[in-house]
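2024-03-11 09:14:02 INFO worker-7 job=invfold-0412 stage=load source=structure_tokens
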């Protein structure tokens, strides 16, 4: 019986590709609070930062106003904090995605189970 090594590697490759995606998600979660509610809040705050940068008055930005009220931090300070946070997160996401795609390409090109096993996601360090 002749084995088709390439075909026999497909289940290993599929498992590794899923693992790479899961590892990338965990890396992102290590950077920010995980969960559906947190993701929605981050999106709304990103939108409000964009709106503020487009000229919308701070007093019309409900998420920033709510955070300012709750934390007693001026909305203008929170706006700056969120601008920096968004820039940092965007840079971090770019590195995670580049790493994820590189590892997935290596997985697809792997010719042996040992090659697949050697492919490990190493999260980028956060600055």
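2024-03-11 09:14:09 INFO worker-7 stage=emit residues=127
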């Amino acid at each position: 019986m002749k084995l088709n090594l390439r075909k026999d590697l497909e289940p290993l490759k599929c498992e590794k590709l899923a693992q790479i995606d899961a590892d990338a998600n965990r890396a992102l979660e290590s950077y920010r609070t995980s969960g559906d509610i947190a993701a929605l809040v981050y999106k709304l705050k990103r939108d409000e930062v964009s709106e503020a940068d487009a000229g919308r008055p701070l007093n019309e930005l409900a998420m920033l106003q709510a955070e300012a009220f709750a934390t007693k931090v001026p909305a203008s300070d929170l706006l700056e904090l969120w601008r920096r946070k968004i820039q940092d997160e965007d840079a971090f996401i770019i590195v995670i995605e580049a790493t994820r795609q590189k590892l997935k390409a290596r997985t697809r090109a792997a010719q042996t189970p040992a090659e697949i096993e050697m492919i490990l996601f190493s999260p980028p360090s956060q600055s």
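2024-03-11 09:14:09 INFO worker-7 stage=report msg="The longest helix spans residues 75-109."
2024-03-11 09:14:10 INFO worker-7 job finished
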